[in-house]
Amino acid sequence: MLKYAIIFAIISLIAGALGFTGIAAGSAGIAKILFFLFLALTVLFVILALLGVGAARKALR
Fold first, then answer.
1. Each residue of 46-61: pLDDT tens digit?
2. Model pLDDT, residue 7
């Protein structure tokens, strides 16, 4: 997911440099959404791993 956020950010930068402001704004919005979704899932999985829930519990045993 982070990979796609970076790809959309690069597309946004290139489109902005070439003057395609609509495409740049759209891809920047998508990149922002994907990044924050990645961040939220990362925090959730780290908390679950620290609590020992699911597969992390089996790995810690």
1. 888 888 776 656 665 6
2. 93
Number of domains in the chain: 1
pLDDT in tens, 5-30: 999 999 999 999 999 999 999 999 99
Retrieve residue 24's tokens.
């740049």
Domain that holds residue 46: 1-60
- Per-position DSSP letters for 15-40, written without gaps between them: HHHHT-HHHHHHHHHHHHHHHHHHHH
17: which 2 tokens? Answer: 């440099």
CA distance 48 to 34: 21
